[in-house]
Amino acid sequence: MTILGSAAGLFCLAALLVHASTVALVLARRRRAAPAARPAVSIVRPVCGLENHIETTLASAFRLDHPRYELLICVAHGRDPAVPLVEAMIAAHPEVPARLLVGEERISENPKLNNIAKGWRAAAHDWIVLEDSNVLMPPDYLDRLLASWGADTGLVSSPPIGCRPDGFWAEIECGFLNTYQARWQCCADALGHGFAQGKSMLWRREDLDCRGGLRVLGREAAEDAAATRVVRGAGLRVQLVDRPFPQPLGARSAAEVWRRQVRWARLRRASFPACYAPEIVASASLPLAAAALAAPDVGLSPLAGALVLASAWYGLEALLAWRAGWHLSPVSPLAWLARDLALPALFVAGWFGNGFVWRGHAMRAVAQRAR
Questions:
Q1: Which of these ranges, 105-109, 110-114, 194-198, 354-358, has the smallest mean pLDDT?
Q2: Which of 77, 143, 199, 276 is the one with CA 20 to 30 A from 243?
């Protein structure tokens, strides 16, 4: 056996063991019981345009099994095409205290924070959920968030789990969201290092207001990264729900998937560069190349070596998706492979460049601003 082949083989084995460990940690995360209390909650949902499946996701907020909650839907201007839909839903559900709030307050460079500032201010309850409009809220949505709150918790969050993909590019986006990003995020939570995701965030109003309110989340381009810093700086923890909430994807184009992943990569790199740097070895791209290099030393062709590793690697991802109830289809392994082959280029794009466009707003991923 060659030294290079042996080193490549050991790298493959180590990478596969780490991969298997992350799957095991996610599947072993404990299921929390029902919350000890069911306090009144204000739900603030920013809306911007007509997204895929928006009728379904918005309607889900009117069907929650919770004794007392209000729904504050925020749009930046009255010309937003979602306004008629929101108004019709509010009229169709008079049993739910719901309001449409129009306008924005310039508290940051982040248009989402500028949109929801009025909702935070208008919230009637001490518990406030900031929830993106494209997340599907199951009937027990609030109970699942509240059940994750503990004595040392400063924020409960949830990564989005992609579902209902329409086409291969949406399948790739599911691969990014679910068995890659959500797997690592849930694994970090299982190890006691949870971090926020802007899709779903449950706050206790006083915990944020006493540290500067929503404005403090505008110190970085990514409000969830700023939220993580705020909570950890207070000596508290970010907790994730045990069963993350779904996001229906619908159709996606290759350009949409690429732009979104580049945006997220640049934000992660700007916010937590020490955590971003190891991402190059977090996928199957380098282990597959190493498997091809090591294969001749054990009598296999490079292609056969890569296929053996791919079967084990993506078999574990399929096990995770199946056991967790996440999207899994016959083309999922091919989508996961396409994702991993794209990740080295995505990693480089994350390092070089700060600019991105989000919902028509040109923004920059920059390090945390000084207080």
A1: 354-358
A2: 276
- Specify the 3-state DSSP secondary structure of 107: coil
Number of folded domains that form the chain: 1
Q: Residue for token digits 């205290």?
A: 97
Query: Domain for residue 12, yes or no?
Result: no
Q: Is residue 264 part of a domain?
A: no
Contact at 8 Å (CB) between 296 and 9? no
Give a yes or no: residue 325 inside a domain: no
Token couple for 314? 């993506």
Determine the pLDDT at residue 361: 66
Is residue 188 within 8 A of residue 232, CB to CB? The reply is no
| Residue numbers of the domain that contains 118 | 38-167+192-247
* CATH number (domain holding residue 72): 3.90.550.10
CB 290 within 8 A of CB 12: yes
Residue 310 belongs to a domain: no
Residue 117: pLDDT over 90: yes
Q: Is the pTM of this model over 0.85?
A: yes
Tell how strand 361-364 and strand 355-358 pair up: antiparallel
